[in-house]
Each structure stands twice: as C-alpha cells, then as structure tokens.
Amino acid sequence: MERIDKILASQNFGSRKQVHKLLKGKSVLINGIVCIDSSQKADPEKDIIEINGEKLVFKKHLYIMMNKPAGVLSASKDKKEKTVIDLLPEMLKRQGLFVAGRLDKDTEGLMIITDDGDFAHRIMSPNKKVYKKYFAKLDKPVTEETKKKFEQGIVFKDGTECLPAKIEICEDGKSAYVSICEGKFHQVKKMFLCCGLKVEYLKRISIGKLELDNLLDPGQSRELEDCEKQQMFFV
Ligand code: URA
C-alpha cells in the first residue's frame, strides 16, 4: 500500500503539488470512490485507480530503448550538456531513470534507460555474460593478429585485463563487429588502440539478442516490450 499522491507522482502525473491539485479537483477515483485526500493509501497493482475517467495502467518500472545520437551524454543529468534523459519525450520521463550501460559521447546506438536497478545490474554485470555488440570503423585494416588478440583477451598498458571478445572483420577490412560482455571505460576504443588502431566511428547495435529498432531515428526512444526485455538475456 502506498500513498495515492506518491503513486500518481511516480506514474508521471506531475509533481506532488500538481497531483494534489488533481485530487482536490475530484479528478481521482479509487475503486469508484472520489479521493481528495492525498494521504489515502492504495495498492496500485490491485485497486482500480482512475484519473479524469481513465484507468491507471500502473508500471512499477519503465524500460526504454533509445537510439542514442552522437554528441549527447549518457548521464542522468549534466549542468552544461544535453543528456539522453533530456531527449526523452514527456510521456517517458519519470524520477529515478538512469542509463543501463553508458556509451561515450561520440558513440551512437542502442541504449537502455530504466529505473529498475536489479534489471540494469543483470545487463551490465560481466558475470551475467550479456554480450553487447558494436559496429566499429577503424583508421586502418583490422588484421588477423588483432582478431587473435581480441579473442584471447586484451590487456591494457596499465595491466587491466579484458575478457575474451568476439570479433568479425567486415569485407572492407577497415570495419568490424565486436562483442564484449563488460563495460570498462572506453573499452572498445582502448582494445583497438592496444592493437594500433583508432576507432573512428562506434555504434552499439545489440545487447544479448535484442537489436536496436531500426525504425528509431537517432534521439528517438520507445518502451520495451516484455519479450524484448527477456531477449537481452538470451545467448
Ligand atoms: N566502448 C567504447 O570505447 N565506447 C563506448 O561508448 C562503448 C564501448
């Protein structure tokens, strides 16, 4: 059981102040009875809550897929620069959202935004072996030796060891698909750098079996379907 004002604020019906206004205006019904008392408690998963005649579809958590554009930070907030949270449409904004697996400012592609910490942990923890696949364009051809090093596990100059990565070199020789199940800072760029190659373009294209929806233009986002949430944990 939760206070009605807290429930409504969590479901994007505005600030507590705006929610109190809704309640005072007799716009909220709980099980068919008008509720004006913001401290009244309800069970959002069992009670029928209506706002201006519309039934509340309660969502404990939000799970969002975004096609992150280059030039935007994958942080929740920044004083100076635009973040992926700023790009969300109003209907997908709510308190507590964060990025599950950051991308660099200049990296594009599949980004998951949620307010479910356990779910984010399952995606990001290297122990869970959820592979993130990237498409990378390099400044020089990728050699078989680079492939071997990636598959054995790159060790950075400071001694940091990366887990073995999967790599497919594209026909043009200067681009490749790389899959890693960890998320060290600048990992893909640093792995290539260890082999003398500079990443000129980077895009995340899938997480587990979940691929970036190619109907999403850069900057666009949408909620994930339940089955898509599961796809991330398929190998
Ligand atoms: N590896 C990188 O180097 N950058 C990213 O944004 C993601 C993975």
What does this 3D model show about the protein?
The chain has six helices and 15 strands. It is of the alpha+beta class and 235 residues long. It has three domains: 2-55, RNA-binding S4 domain (Structural Genomics Hypothetical 15.5 Kd Protein In mrcA-pckA Intergenic Region, Chain A), CATH 3.10.290.10; 63-125, Alpha-Beta Plaits (2-Layer Sandwich), CATH 3.30.70.580; 131-207, Alpha-L RNA-binding motif (Alpha-Beta Plaits, 2-Layer Sandwich). Strands 7, 8, 9, 10, 11, 12, 13, 14 and 15 form a nine-stranded mixed beta sheet that branches. Strands 3-2-5-6 form a four-stranded antiparallel beta sheet, with no helix packed on it. A two-stranded antiparallel ribbon has the order 1-4. A hairpin with a 2-residue loop joins strand 5 and strand 6. The radius of gyration is 22 Å and the shape is elongated. The mean pLDDT is 96. Uracil binds at residues 103-104, 107, 186-189, 202.
List descriptors.
235 residues; 20% helix; four-stranded antiparallel β-sheet; Alpha-Beta Plaits; nine-stranded mixed β-sheet; 3 domains; binds uracil; alpha+beta; Structural Genomics Hypothetical 15.5 Kd Protein In mrcA-pckA Intergenic Region, Chain A
Helix content bin: 10-25%
Q: Which homologous superfamily in CATH is the superfamily of the largest domain?
A: Alpha-L RNA-binding motif
* CATH fold descriptor of the largest domain: Alpha-Beta Plaits
Distance between the termini: 38 Å
**Could you say what the CATH architecture of the largest domain is?**
2-Layer Sandwich
Query: What percent strand?
Result: 25-35%
Number of alpha- plus pi-helical segments: 6
Number of E strands: 15
Mean pLDDT: 96
User: What is the molecular shape?
Assistant: elongated
Low-confidence stretches: none
Structural class: alpha+beta
Report the bound ligands by name, code or SMILES.
uracil
By CATH reckoning, the class of the largest domain would read Alpha Beta
Described by strand count, sense and barrel closure, the largest sheet is: 9 strands, mixed
Computed CA radius of gyration, to the nearest angstrom: 22 Å
